[in-house]
Amino acid sequence: MDGERPAPPHPAVETPLFHYISPDEDSARWWDFSFRQGDIVISTRSKSGTTWVQMICLLLVHQAPDLPASLGALSPWMDWKVQHKEVVWGLLEAQPFRRVIKTHTPLDGVPMDDEVTYIVMGRHPLDMAVSLYHQGDNIDRERMGELIGPPEPETVAPHGRSAERRSRPPVEQWLRNFVDWDPDPRQQLDSLPGILFHLTDAWERQAEADVVLVHYDDLLHDLDGSMRRLARLLGLPEDEARWPSLVHAATFDDMRAHAEASVPDVMGVLRDPRAFFRRGDSGEGRRLLSDEELARYQARVAELAPADLLAWLHRDQSP
What we know:
The protein has a single domain, classed as 3-Layer(aba) Sandwich (Rossmann fold), CATH 3.40.50.300. Strands 2-1-3-4 form a four-stranded parallel β-sheet, with helices on both faces. Helices cover about 40% and strands about 5% of the residues. The protein is mainly alpha-helical. It has 16 helices and four strands.
């Protein structure tokens, strides 16, 4: 992603916003966007549980297991060039209820508004990387090209639109490359430095803004408790009569069973919507690396993020 620091166009912004732009995304779509009181912005890295927390927030807002529209229509992706900005803004403007907005932009590229809650997901970076590797096989590159043009001819990344067209190494080697790759984090947000930059930025904002960090493993191991925590933080009801049906609708299995409605693919760029929900567990990335390789990973992340964030992110595991 290329970046620059333009003058902030949004009245709520007191510091300049970083401009994140890539062949697929453009954070400038945020600059003239009008927030409403109570908006919920979900800012995540790819494959960290974005769709999961979108579904949870939508269920809590609508208080019903059957949502009034598909997840992609109810919670559009602000930055994605595949869908025109006017369409995304129009979808959000027409919503009479509390809005849930998806972005992959770190919070230093999003206007911070006192009346908005920002939710940032954390997941073990090795699991994110493995999920990203397999997600590449499910993207229809021809369809992407129709929507936003052909990919750039080359990329240095171990993943990406052009890299996916070439033969990739086995996932184990790809994961080792992911650990060692050292790009500018703001240019390659789905790299290890990029993931930890995004999380560190959010981690350091918790005391000064309504920023909520949610861990993927908490949703995995205590979905009920995690949903109750979010409901309280968002000021949304915990109706005990409806609660079991809401929790069930937020399970990985139920989302996979209703993939046509729960997968955020309004433009048809996925080959198989059900494959979007591949496994939904934790630990796969660590199992693919040797002890020596895991030690290398641990040394790398220690250089990239504060120790308290890493302890939260790794759940005090080693690594």
